[in-house]
Amino acid sequence: DIYEYEEEGCKVVAEEIADLIREKQQKGEMCVLGLATGNSPRGVYKELVRLHKEDNLSFSNVITFNLDEYYPMEKTSVNSYNHYMNELLFDHVDIKPENIYVPDGSVARDKIKEYCNAYEKKIDEVGGIDLQLLGIGRTGHIGFNEPGSYMNSYTRIIALDDITIDDAVKDFGSLSEVPKGAITMGVGSIFKAQKIILLAWGSNKAEIIKKAVEGKITDDVPASFLQQHKNVKFVVDIYAAGEL
Ligand code: GLP
């Protein structure tokens, strides 16, 4: 779906999420959301907070799994995705703390494998993700699944691509401050979701959106794997759609 303005697209996606939460509520079921960070979903979280405050949307039946976190990274650091999620969403809604899962970038190196396997297992245990939100990096990454990530990759630690590290300098202040790794759900983890919505705004995403949507399916562009998912929607603005 193509919108003229980012704000408009974010509102429609937030409404869709709210509808799903309410539908599950009526059935007495939990709603499992897969969440993304970065700039792209900011407007969605803003609108969800508004719907909570002004339209009685409750998150009491919501379980969330975030896609990724830098490694190494303290949870409390202002640059952590843990911090981002608290600031933008969790601190402002009635989600139960025990229903929030964001990868922990401070687990000891020798415990990472075990930690990642447990994260993946937890997603399956609660019945899998109903709706997964995604952004896209200029390398074509989804989550932090950089080029070279396989279709059957699951939650694991990865090394960040140089382009991704460069793009993160604006957040961290300098190159030396940017973590060189991350814990991320895999392409396979993402694929298990019932529905996927990928968000992209602005002309600097136009080239990679074209490759992801119209290009060859290849691990050089991990987002291109999405062409094979049964229920996926790209929500973009006219600028990100500029090369389609
Ligand atoms: C980071 C995140 C991704 C996100 C991407 C794009 O690398 N790990 O999940 O999709 O950035 O970010 P933005 O939405 O800021 O363009």
Automatic annotation (TrEMBL):
GO BP, sorted A to Z: carbohydrate metabolic process; N-acetylglucosamine catabolic process
Record's protein name: Glucosamine-6-phosphate deaminase
Listed GO MF terms: glucosamine-6-phosphate deaminase activity
Ranges of residues in domain Glucosamine/galactosamine-6-phosphate isomerase: 7-230
Superkingdom: Bacteria
Coiled-coil stretches noted in the UniProt entry, renumbered to this chain: none
Organism listed in the record: Balneicella halophila
